[in-house]
Amino acid sequence: MSRQSPKGKKLSGKTVLQILTGSIAAYKSPDLIKLMRNEGARVVCVMTDCANEFVTRTVLRTVSGEQVYQDMFPEEAPFGVLHTSLAELPDLVLVAPATANFIAKLASGIADDLGSCLCLATRKPILIVPAMNDGMYTHPITQKNIAQLKAIGYYFADPVEGDLACGRVGIGHIASDKTIFEAVQDILQRKNRPR
Fold this sequence. Notes:
The protein contains 8 helices and 7 strands, in the order E-H-E-H-H-E-H-H-E-H-H-E-E-E-H.
């Protein structure tokens, strides 16, 4: 059950659908979810199978106050066609953290799990927050995929230099919660501005 958001919060009345992929940075997601909720957002989470290695559905359900989705065809789902229903639900889709694999799937139009299917089906803004090894992030294929997604209107909160899971320091560390939150807020405000 969602708690009601008071008026005047920065994300009041907004729904963010957060897709979590299999980066170790997924363990930080509960803090970001709490930040968005404290500012009035409803946050609904979708997990890839690999995200389960770093954060549990129970944790995400607890901090979001919402059902967490992972399976394409769950036995108990509130929607008829889950991926298209979820695609229409939010004001913004946030892919955080986003792996090189998930970014490559989006750039290629591959829709082989719930998260990638709903990204292909949605017409809402999509904000991608990469988090990966520096070699993977700087690889020409990853950079080409990112450039391709930017060219068709996807937004990015770029990674920073920092400690990586492999023990090195390099570019690929997930952006701070503050940076991600500000990007979410900016995109949602931009969407509401008259053209």
